[in-house]
Amino acid sequence: MSEPILELRGINKSFGPVHVLHDVDFTVRAGEVTALVGDNGAGKSTLVKCIAGIYPTDSGEVLFNGEQTHIHGPKEASNLGIEVVYQDLALCDNLDIVQNMFLGRERGRAGLLDESDMEQAARKTLTSLSVRTVKSVRTPVASLSGGQRQTVAIAKAVLWDSKVVLLDEPTAALGVAQTRQVLDLVRRLAEQGLGVVLISHNMNDVFEVADRIATLYLGRMAAELPTKDVTHSQVVELITAGRSGDLGIARPENAVV
Amino acid sequence: MTTRSESTVDIANGDVEPTRRSLWQRVSGSNTVWIALVLVALIVVFSIARPDAFLTLFTAQTLLIEAAVLLVLGVGMTFVIITSGIDLSVGSVLIFAGVMAAKTMEGLSPRSDSTGAGWGVILVGLLVALVSGGAWGLVNGLLIARAKIPPLIVTLGSFGAALGAAQLITDGSDVRTVPKALARTLGSGTSLGVVPNLVILAVLITVVGDLVLRTTRFGRYTYAIGSNEEAARRAGIAVTRHLVTVYLMVGVLAGLAGFMSLAYFRTTTISGHSTDNLNVIAAVVLGGTSLFGGMGSIIGTVIGIFIPAVLTKGFVILHVQAFWQPIAVSAVLVAAVWFDQVRRRARDQS
């Protein structure tokens, strides 16, 4: 088992009177896909936004590469090498693949753009991810399919020498073949040594690519287990009830709240 | 790994060179080319009809001069429309800047007659024109980007306010003294024998605008914001600051256009620019810049400026009633926008 690259300890987060995250521990390991599952409202998105620096945490520790850090904003998160691919992808339809991948971080001197350098780097990244489904890196994003857009969004995230990539429901709107492609891509990211966090509602996807499964239940980390040690139905029980047999949160009468 | 039906090319291998689409594909896919063909066709028709009158140096010179002021406004407007904004105030800001410049130059001259003023006074006048144009642009930009008021409303407001302010300053009557030195050089002078100086200035602005839009980060961000503002924000682009800068730039360019107009007409022409905003917007849209943002080019705007100008000239020469010109331009404009929407729909479905 590899060293944790990102480690969260005892994270708490409230929005006014609503306590969304309770003492959440969460670990991301380099070279592994960690699935983050949980029902609607369990706190998955909040946890991701805390990692991405969009929400400040109320208490708890964040360790990156074993060193304690504080992530105060999206810029700091990306400086550390943490990238998030949101569900709505946030691509510019009128711009082409290269322009989207480098958006906000264009290469070139004195405000001038170095198009050929960016094009080469974009191609190199896509090649390293074995992406073979786009005709040209100069295709406008508007004319790409859903799976290709997802691919571009993920490639954009790994272009920056990222260490941790968080993917929010990357297969939610995709067909069978495209889901296949994206899952292959997720696997390859981990093989390249990145820590990958996959948020998904789809148990098949989770069991297919994840090395570990972390289950949130009403803002608490119910269990964080290797995929091979749990079954499909156990995970579903963890999601819906917060526990399954010996796993998960202790019964309410024993719990220390 | 794939069961996709669409053709896939291995981009890793260099054996297929897919990156540059064929010239024809790129050319036929853009509105700009079709609209350029319309312009060429118009020129050819008028040239054949009256070769003696249309294909003359004088016609070319006046055509270019009349387009010069609109072109300067059009460069700024292209940036604004690409961000999916709009600026209705350019004509009024032009007048305001011209009035401010003219009044300042008069104030710095003996007996409020700036006819004999020297270059020092003229430069101060230019500076005043740019600053007063820029001030309106800054106000527009801050209200749009910070206060998040729709650009249509903000610039409709400044459209009225800038004109009103110009009339307040002048009591509604045009300033009639303009430095001779300015009128003779920038206003009606020529360089290289035949090229009007006004046109040289407009071309310079256009070339710089085109380079900024196509080859710089500033231009790229302009497209990105118009395409998907939220994505631009998440990519770390300072969207608010960028929008303020774009509107500021339009204001400064309108100020420059006001100064050019002052030099050419030798008066402030307060009542002569009430439809400049619509003419410029029509030209920009005609040139293939999408009102939905994210798409457009300066070269398209140049063509879009010249279609109405050529039509007007041609109708005058052919003794067609000049009132046909707005009808013809409007028809082309509506057709161009319709074309753009059909194209977008086709693209989004693919």
Automatic annotation (TrEMBL), chain A:
Matching Pfam families: ABC_tran
Keyword Ribonucleoprotein applies: no
UniProt KW keywords: ATP-binding, Nucleotide-binding
Gene Ontology MF term list: ATP binding; ATP hydrolysis activity
InterPro entries: AAA+_ATPase, ABC_carbohydrate_import_ATPase, ABC_transporter-like_ATP-bd, P-loop_NTPase
Domain ABC transporter, first and last residues per copy: 6-243
PROSITE patterns in the cross-refs: ABC_TRANSPORTER_2 (PS50893)
CDD domains: ABC_Carb_Monos_I
Name this protein carries in UniProt: Sugar ABC transporter ATP-binding protein
Native source species: Solihabitans fulvus
TrEMBL record, chain B:
Localisation: Cell membrane
Matches recorded under InterPro entries: ABC_transp_permease
Pfam families reported for this sequence: BPD_transp_2
Main location class: membrane
GO cellular component: plasma membrane
Membrane topology: Multi-pass membrane protein
Gene Ontology MF, one: transmembrane transporter activity
Keywords, comma-separated and alphabetical: Cell membrane, Membrane, Transmembrane, Transmembrane helix
Record's keyword annotation contains 4Fe-4S: no
Superkingdom: Bacteria
Spans through the membrane: 32-51, 63-82, 88-105, 117-139, 191-213, 244-265, 277-310, 322-339
Protein name, as recorded: ABC transporter permease
Species this protein is from: Solihabitans fulvus
